[in-house]
Amino acid sequence: MPQKVSIDYNKLCIMVLLASVIYNEYLAYFSYFASWPKLPIKKLQMGNLEEESAKDILKILYVADPQIQGYLNEGSTGPIKRWDIDRYLSKTFSWAMYAYEPQVVIFLGDLIDEGSEADKDDYLDYVKRFKNVYTIKNEERATTSYDSKTQAIFVPGDNDIGGEGSDRVTKEKVERFQKYFFFKTSVYIQRKIVNSRNHSC
């Protein structure tokens, strides 16, 4: 007569929970990281007549539509959604920075969901959250905290300064964006220049 198998459901639940945490917090990100294409640095160097080193090759990371979640129409689960989305954006951005080590990061709007509609207090909170998620230093020359030499450039979208439907672009909205995100100086990196003087207009 076959023996009955005794299952400890408490231990089984703990094991499933731990496996889920390990997969969702690390393995899922690593699997995508491993599938990303590698930069052909050696081929670029071989085809460059000036024989520049790998450090002389300018790497730019484009972060498109990185908008953080707003506060309007979020319901009772809003705080949980914002916490989860902020963590996801931060982790994926950190993996991208680790993978490619760019000298310039260009954030293409929208940067902030509901940024154009936000009042002063909410907007300041959005800015703080955005810079925490994407590890932006609050300095005159915007840089990422991953590398003090990595410059950040910000391009607004309609959710940042208006322009969609009845949400008009106004001088006040543009000036507010420029105050907290606009990069007014040119970016100099290893004898190369990226001009960002007019990118918001």
In short:
With 201 residues, the chain is an alpha/beta fold. The protein is 42% helix and 13% strand. It is flat.
List the helices and strands and how they pair.
Blueprint: H1 9-35, H2 41-46, E1 60-64, H3 78-100, E2 104-108, H4 120-133, E3 143-144, E4 147-155, H5 158-161, H6 171-180, E5 187-189, E6 192-194
Parallel strand pairs: 1-2, 2-4
Antiparallel strand pairs: 3-4, 5-6
Helix pairs in contact: 3-4
Structure, described:
Helices cover 42% and strands 13% of the residues. Strands 1-2-4-3 form a four-stranded mixed beta sheet, with helices on one face. A two-stranded antiparallel ribbon has the order 5-6. The protein folds into two domains: 30 residues; 154 residues, Purple Acid Phosphatase, chain A, domain 2, CATH 3.60.21. The protein is α/β, with parallel strands linked by helices. The C terminus is likely disordered. Helix 3 runs parallel beside helix 4. The protein contains six helices and six strands, in the order H-H-E-H-E-H-E-E-H-H-E-E.
